[in-house]
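Input.
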Amino acid sequence: MLSVTCKAAIKAVIYLGSMFKSGEKFGIREIADQIDENEHTVGKLLQKLAKAGLICSAKGPNGGFYIIENQMKLPILAIVEAIDGTDVFNQCGLGLHKCSAAHPCPIHNDFKSVREGFRMLCSEKTIEDLCLPVNSGIAYLIS
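Output.
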């Protein structure tokens, strides 16, 4: 449902959020290492997230990426919209281009509830909500 880039973006933001209390700024390489993603991809998506106002960035020798308190309250949906857009919640479960109620794929009706449930999860869960289990050691960002 989500692109690989969007999944990486969510992990990067959760990593930054989990480090929020430290007050530190983090470089692209460190973030990429911590979420086990390609450094080039992480660099591009962090710039996109910063431009969208979902994370902050600072230039210079003490620069890097970080997150501030009001950004911790943002829903995960904001990340999905910035990277993949909202069409992800309307796509066919089998990837058909012309899937609709009038012309359904074999899983159309079942997948509709999955999409709606995932959209609700992304709307209700905040960055902070997803950082709490990481900080308490019950969830992880890498395998």
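The helical segments are 4-18, 28-35, 39-51, 69-72, 76-83, 108-124, 127-135.
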